[in-house]
Amino acid sequence: MLPARTHRRRVLPFAAVAIAASLLAGVAQADTSTPADPKLIADLDAILADPRLATAQAGVQVVDTSTGQVVYQHQADALLTPASTLKTVTSAAALELLGENHVFTTEVRTTGSRYSSVLNGDLILRGGGDPSLQPKDLDDLAAQVAAAGITTVTGRVLADGSRYDSVPLGPGWAWDDEAYSYSPQISALTVAPDAEYSMDTVKVTVTPAATAGQPATVTLFPAEAPVKFAGQIATGAAGSGNSADVERRRGVNELALTGSLAVGSAPVDFLTTVENPAGYTGDVFAGALARHGVKVLRPAKAATGTETSQALVGHASRPLGELLVPMLKISNNGIAEHLLKEIGKVKGGQGSWSAGVTQVNGFLKANGLELPTGRQVDGSGLSRYDLVSASKLTGLLKLAPGKPWFKTWYDALPVAGNPERMVGGTLAARMRGTAAENNVHAKSGSMGGVDNLVGYATAPDGRRLAFSILVNNFPGARPRSVLDAIAVRLATGPAVTPSAPAAPALKSFNAPALHDAPAEVPATRWEECETLGRC
């Protein structure tokens, strides 16, 4: 989630999803209940004939949302890895079950008794699941404590993340992703150091020394982050480039510093996750209290969640509907996981992944979307255990326009070709100069061997077409231009000649020929392509 820094790691091999033979036997076809559009079928068949898909699986479905007609499908019931397109399910369920005005409240509470300006007890920082809590919010809470007349706390700051369960990482998340900002530990009390809500991370800034050969300066934001350094980053000669790297060692808050940064270079920022997000947040709050003249006599520690306490001050997040913008536009995994656990807490009484999934499945079933059987284990799609079909996703897309929350949801989806980060999001650099630009609203989803796009295209005649394109198990070049060509074709309408070869048709959209698409960037971090728009 950090545009200033590209983390590299090896691409993990993974097993192909086992799917019933009857699902794999499907071929491209239009719904037979109404006359098929042979031109659309021919065009999309030609696009899907790309050689990069020869050994891959592709599940595709296109639906006219005004009539419900399936106008095109190809293996639409095959269960495939959704990656971040699963966020469409989680976000829709959150809007339905929690409401777009739902807020997350962080409280400061007191234990013990107060004598004048002295609190003879503890301050509890109780997390309410806010995925957007920032250091400035904790500073504001500290200022409110000081304004309430408290100058001394004889006890501690107790960090309380007990609203959600104590399981920090989702089922099936990769162990070697844990240090990176897209794979934060999930807690009801967490802090994000940036405007894009990269929760449970610390920003590490590396600044070269004034003289080559001297160590670079390394600083933290927030400064109270409980991390230690090992090694150092050197200052290289002018023009020597940047090989600086910061890596958190697994399971500990120790950052390995390596490489060098050329003298005269601009500072470089890194984001890395922190072990124990609630404790980290408590430390940042304790630092804010000290800055505001509130002396806490004992070190911060974890709350049990059972303390008897009284409310003192609080902070409310932005409403859920607004938090969907960074969640969907820039594919913020942490927000998605908080929404799933919050659904479980509010509707099922338990802030866990399993409780949240149970409630989401209930939402899908209540709206007739329980079949075909799939599997959801997290909220973001970070897990390889997640399975979904193109038909289920288009079913959700077909359902959504009739919901009162649809405009909020639709506007939060990335908009193809729009360069504004919080408008175009992960599609900002895609489909520019085509009929899809500022037309297609869609959620992308990618990881090694997975490239998906799910959303809406408005045809020239005004029809809103819902589409789901799930491409899994390709071993080489990323077939992104295949996905984009389908979306562009839906937005263009019947202007494309059905018999035209796929490559020339794409060139007419100012996109590369299918067989000329660049190879997948090797060893990229999870969803680097999505977040940074680099592939």
Describe the structure concisely for a colleague.
This protein has helices spanning 21-24, 38-48, 87-97, 135-147, 277-291, 320-329, 333-348, 353-366, 390-399, 406-412, 421-424, 480-492, 502-507, 528-532, and strands at 57-64, 70-74, 105-110, 113-115, 118-120, 123-126, 152-153, 157-160, 201-207, 217-221, 228-231, 234-236, 245-248, 254-258, 260-262, 268-273, 295-296, 301-302, 310-316, 441-447, 450-458, 464-472. With 535 residues, it is an alpha/beta fold.
Can you describe what's shown?
The protein has 535 residues and is of the alpha/beta class. The protein has three domains: 21-84 and 386-532, Beta-lactamase; 105-167 and 276-318, D-tyrosyl-trna(Tyr) Deacylase, Chain: A, CATH 3.50.80; 201-273, no CATH class. The chain has 14 helices and 22 strands. A five-stranded antiparallel beta sheet has the order 2-1-22-21-20, sandwiched between helices. Helix 3 runs antiparallel to helix 6 (320-329), helix 3 runs parallel beside helix 7 (333-348) and helix 3 packs across helix 8. The longest helix has 16 residues, at 333-348. It is globular, with a radius of gyration of 25 Å. The chain starts with 20 loop residues before the first helix and ends with a helix. It is an enzyme of class 3 (hydrolase). InterPro entries: Beta-lactam/transpept-like, Peptidase_S13, TAT_signal. Keywords: Carboxypeptidase, Hydrolase, Protease, Signal.
Core attributes:
alpha/beta, 535 residues, five-stranded antiparallel beta sheet, 14 helices, 22 strands, Beta-lactamase, single chain, 26% helix, disordered N terminus, 3 domains, D-tyrosyl-trna(Tyr) Deacylase, Chain: A
